[in-house]
Design brief:
Length: 402
């Protein structure tokens, strides 16, 4: 059997959950069945990892970027279209919002037989202006009309899409994130890692791993650190990541006199090691799809307090594997973190049950790869399920007859 030409498109290979999951998927795919291509932005912290993957042809674009730029966006669209035609791509699978729009438009214009999009959180949300939210929703609806299947990583994303009339219910497929559980079983290195970061044995460590952008609300983490230190003189905080809000985060640390209390660790490649040294993990996101770092923290045996956004509640059972609070409810966030720091037994209970939940089959990496390959095979065997929807076909015929 000839190999299938499979193209992945993602806006930028930064150190995020969607990017890490995509590279893990590519690594796990059957290389005897697919010729694998990846189209992405020119730079990104995970470019080196992508270049190291066997059987992957990487295309780096100088036009594709996260910010809206009409000229560059048009050029990226044309470039993706040309790449699809040149390499005779049979399956286009897009990831992230910007790439999901441009990639699917290009694939539709190129009459690609199978077009798939994975939702890592919708492009429209409650923290946008009404105009921006409606604009992104309009684009999602247009692209859904010629998308073969829409993969969601949480039931919450499916419900939100259908509630906003994005696609049909039969287009949606739930394929949850998966992790390699064994990567996070290194608690025995806890003391060495803590020492390398400047913590001592008596310190209680609260940490978060996130990009410094409005979605993740890192300033709320700094405010939390200020509030918790009143109850615990030995509490220390570590924030792993970087981004557009870095200067504001650093300024707030200085303003609240938290120098020495809060460590800004930057981007780290040793996330399992960082998680192993924490006493409590916190996530302050305002909106989410399904943050993979929650799975990683739970697999590491770290009790957590997270905002109840997106699909977080589908893995974190409030009061049993962690605590859930409303976004921007700093009072509740502080109370739950303090409660865990005061109760060693509760932390141990949460950690034990968290490991059980995450080790279940539905959150394993090999299961995610298996389900994705099954989707590709099913769509290839049943052309009626993967053809471009009638809406695009009618539009194409109008252009050809004009």
């Amino acid at each position: 059997m000839p190999k299938t030409n499979l193209l992945y498109i993602i806006t930028k290979l930064e150190l995020g959950g969607a990017q890490k999951q995509l590279l893990s998927l590519i690594k796990g795919l059957d290389k005897q069945a697919y010729n694998i291509f990846l189209f992405t932005a020119e730079d990104g912290l995970l470019i080196k990892e992508a270049l190291a993957l066997d059987g992957l042809t990487l295309k780096r674009s100088r036009f594709l970027e996260r910010k809206i730029n009409p000229l560059k966006d048009l050029l990226a669209l044309i470039e993706i279209y040309g790449f699809i035609k040149k390499n005779r791509i049979q399956i286009v699978h897009t990831h992230s919002s910007k790439a999901g729009i441009l990639g699917r438009l290009a694939a539709g214009l190129a009459k690609t037989k199978i077009i798939i999009h994975t939702v890592h959180g919708w492009s429209f949300h409650d923290y946008q202006s009404l105009i921006a939210s409606r604009f992104y929703l309009f684009l999602e609806k247009i692209c859904a009309s010629f998308t073969s299947k829409i993969i969601v990583v949480s039931s919450w994303d499916k419900d939100k899409g259908l509630k906003n009339s994005v696609g049909r219910e039969d287009q949606y497929v739930l394929i949850r994130y998966g992790i390699d559980y064994t990567d996070f079983q290194n608690r025995e290195k806890r003391d060495a890692v803590r020492k390398s970061l400047g913590f001592n044995d008596a310190d209680l460590i609260v940490g978060m791993v996130a990009c410094f952008k409005p979605q993740k609300s890192p300033l709320d983490f700094i405010k939390l650190a200020f509030a918790v230190r009143k109850d615990f003189s030995n509490a220390k905080f570590i924030l792993v990541g970087d981004g557009v809000l870095f200067k504001k985060v650093r300024c707030l640390i200085k303003k609240l006199h938290l120098e020495g209390r809060v460590i800004l660790a930057g981007w780290r490649r040793d996330i399992p090691s960082i998680l192993s040294c924490l006493d409590v993990f916190v996530l302050t996101s305002l909106w989410e799809g399904f943050p993979i770092v929650v799975l990683e923290a739970m697999a590491s045996g770290v009790p957590l307090v997270a905002t109840d956004t997106g699909g977080v509640g589908e893995v974190v059972v409030d009061g049993k594997t962690g605590y859930l609070v409303k976004a921007r409810d700093l009072g509740s966030l502080q109370n739950q973190v303090v409660k865990l720091l005061r109760d060693n037994q509760k932390r141990d209970e949460f950690a034990k049950l968290s490991r059980v939940v995450v080790s279940a089959k539905k959150f394993l990496l090999n299961i995610m790869v298996k389900h994705t390959e099954e989707l590709y095979s099913n769509l290839a065997r049943h052309p009626a399920l993967s053809g471009i929807a009638p809406v695009l076909s009618r539009q194409t015929r109008r252009c050809e007859n004009a």
